[in-house]
Amino acid sequence: MQHAVGSPLPPPHQSGNGWSPAAQHPGPHHPGTHQGPAPHQGPAPHQGPAPHQGSAPVPPPPTAPGFTPPGTPPGTPSGPVPPAPPHAHVPPAPETTGHVPLPPGGPVGMPSAPPATAVPDPATTTLAVLLIGPAGAGKTSVAKYWADHRRVPTAHISLDDVREWVRSGFADPQSGWNDNSEAQYRLARRTCGFAARNFLANGISCILDDAVFPDRPVVGLGGWKRHVGPGLLPVVLLPGLEIVLERNAERTGNRRLTDEEVARIHGRMAGWYGSGLPIIDNSQLDVPQTAQILDDVLARSIASPPKW
């Protein structure tokens, strides 16, 4: 058996072995002295037994109170080392998707008017558009086509699609207008508004479609203004009654209304004439032609926003 004399030999270099260089060589450093493990050159001189490298280091013996080990810098407190303070509270990271931060959605401001010499191009401008019209006016078809053919990212947010998220307990106004159907419509409009604000805050234009009545300004147009912001550009799509009846007859499911209901809605939509909002009569226009007219109307609205 050999006996330990001096410092223990350093263990072989391994990753994750828990050793630190300072613990391996507590003595002073001498220039030119080899600090790492020497290559094998035969039996080493008798220096006492090397501790088993697989075992934990032996802790130093306890010291008496007031005793300062040799070589300790002046002013170093003696006695047991106090425990490390607990980790400071780390605030939660902001909401992100992967590593891409998402700006929060806020009310959409009025679009800035271009210089008088410039012609605004709605195809390359981030916009929030509300397409208004009766059932059968072609709002959904025009909105989808317009969003699909823009040169900038654009989302189509359909009120009817959001309403149909309700699978159990869906309140169909055809079965009678009541507080439940009113609440579901208002909830769907608010949900569409929140979605539009989030898209717009991240540089994606939006077009929404809804049958907004002019005789209900607080719930209809005023509600959309509150949900999205004053920068929302409303445009009315209002073909003739005969065209609306023909298109409604091609519908299926709960989106098809009775002829009486279609005529009643169309009559109420006539109140938009004289309101100051731009109106497109697409009775003799197909979907691409109507989308082109919509671009022209939006260009004028950007240059001179309608008052509503």
Keywords:
308 residues, alpha/beta, Rossmann fold, 5-stranded parallel beta sheet, two-stranded antiparallel ribbon, 8 helices, 7 strands, 28% helix, globular, disordered N terminus
How is this structure best described in words?
- The chain has 308 residues and is an alpha/beta fold.
- The chain has a domain of 180 residues: P-loop containing nucleotide triphosphate hydrolases (Rossmann fold, 3-Layer(aba) Sandwich), CATH 3.40.50.
- Helices cover 28% and strands 9% of the residues.
- The chain is built from eight helices and seven strands.
- The strands form two sheets. A five-stranded parallel sheet has the order 4-5-3-6-7, with helices on both faces. A two-stranded antiparallel ribbon has the order 1-2.
- Helix 4 runs parallel beside helix 5.
- It is globular and about 95 Å long.
- The N terminus is likely disordered.
Oligomer class: single chain
Q: What is the level-2 CATH architecture name of the domain at 124-303?
A: 3-Layer(aba) Sandwich
Which regions contain 5 or more consecutive residues with pLDDT less than 50? 1-11, 13-34
CATH level-4 homologous superfamily of the domain at 124-303: P-loop containing nucleotide triphosphate hydrolases
Our measurement of the CA-to-CA distance between the termini, rounded to an integer number of angstroms, reads: 99 Å
Gyration radius (Cα, Å) is 38 Å
What is the CATH topology classification name of the domain at 124-303? Rossmann fold
**Whole-number mean pLDDT:** 76
Which CATH first-tier class of the domain at 124-303 would you pick?
Alpha Beta
Share in helix: 25-40%
Number of helices: 8
> What is the N-to-C succession of helices and strands?
HEEEHEHHEHEHHEH
The outline comes out as globular
Tally of DSSP β-strands = 7
Helix-and-strand structural type: alpha/beta
Q: Main sheet: which strands, in order across? A: 4-5-3-6-7
The biggest beta sheet, please?
5 strands, parallel
Q: What fraction strand?
A: 5-15%
